[in-house]
């Protein structure tokens, strides 16, 4: 999907306020009644409707008048909300060219203030074949309101948590930097997907390394489930980096053995076909060994799964049980549709020079309020954190502004006011356990995020992003409210 972030520079605070109102409404409505958007946004003199027209023109919302006059966010609208949040946090300052198109994601380069280039993965669940979409719709039909944005957010959250945990345990994965909503920021992998590589200096070594990784993952309690030439990056020194984690499962999953064998089989097949590497049958004849322990392919049953308990660690910290179950249901539905089947995967999109899409971050005293354009000079001051950040510090902790108090009332009177601590897009206010787990997760990921951002920047954090992390308790009431309103 084309991501023209130019429009982002010209959106005003009211535009974002209304866009945010649509997102909030989508927690309870597939299509949000225009009137509800208006009440949440709380703009004066029917301003919401004018803004909605502008958002519609920029394809940030979709209008649906089938049952009533209503709106929903488009992926582009969701992209903008996530990008704005991350820019305001100081994670990156500009968006560049598209570097990858997955089945269910788009990957772009982004650059930090000091010029470090990172990768931004925007999850787009539901972009698969019609059949898959239909089966997922069937699965989702019992939900109070199903929501592709919600599933994409889950995928991002899971990917971020797994990437972080795997990196911490020494697996060759990109550095997990941050995530918000359906967007994951990670280090840019130097190299190419293995599928693009026609020749290797040491195919045997690479083959062994890759098989070793599958085994080591299982020893740590995890199976990648999409471990193939599309999700293995390799650089000029033939160093491997594994990517793409939303479908990972625990070795205790009921289909674990099948997933493990499938990952192994994908690697055998690919190396056999592309590099003419001997298969296990031939190995027995020519006496070569594939895994250093014998001449047979790694078997799930013989893997010692006690070396680590990453799956448990993740279940405890990275991703709530409920979310894991939701994702697994989704994955099960799509069990056949993994990357190896898609020929047009990973094609590179429009090349856009990274500087041409520079997004300016606000550098005013109020931290992280805006993504206003230097050209327009409009300092956006409203924004309301209720998105799907992995970080607690950007959560909405109190009513963000006077005018939004009205929205709160309106929603409460409808019985639809959601916990402001809760950023879940769906079913979120109902489950106390999950909220506790969310709070725990938030704390942990928050710490990780800070570390990762610092690591990615290599040095210190930019001043404005440091400001964003400062004590929120100081200052006048007004500035407190102002700060709250500014947090995304
Ligand atoms: P999907 O889940 O949609 O398959 P992937 O995570 O596999 O998405 O990414 C799709 C493509 O984007 C990859 O094949 C790769 O070319 C590129 N890509 C993804 N992550 C990175 C990264 N961190 N650095 C460089 N390229 C990446
Ligand atoms: Mg992939």
TrEMBL record:
One MF term in the entry's GO annotations: protein serine/threonine kinase activity
Family matches, as SMART domains: RIO
Compositional bias of kind Basic and acidic residues: 357-366, 406-415
Any GO BP annotation: maturation of SSU-rRNA
Keyword Hydrolase: no
Cofactor(s) for this UniProt protein: Mg(2+)
Enzyme Commission code(s) on record: 2.7.11.1
Chain ranges of the RIO kinase domain: 64-290
Region (Disordered): 280-300, 356-488
GO-annotated cellular components: cytosol; nucleus; preribosome, small subunit precursor
Domain of life from the UniProt record: Eukaryota
Biased composition (Basic residues): 444-463
Compositional bias of kind Polar residues: 388-404
Reaction equations catalysed: L-threonyl-[protein] + ATP = O-phospho-L-threonyl-[protein] + ADP + H(+); L-seryl-[protein] + ATP = O-phospho-L-seryl-[protein] + ADP + H(+)
UniProt feature, compositional bias: Acidic residues: 280-292, 420-439
Keywords for this protein: ATP-binding, Kinase, Magnesium, Metal-binding, Nucleotide-binding, Serine/threonine-protein kinase, Transferase
Family indicated by similarity: Belongs to the protein kinase superfamily. RIO-type Ser/Thr kinase family.
Protein name per its UniProtKB record: Serine/threonine-protein kinase RIO2
Source species taxonomy: Eukaryota, Viridiplantae, Streptophyta, Embryophyta, Tracheophyta
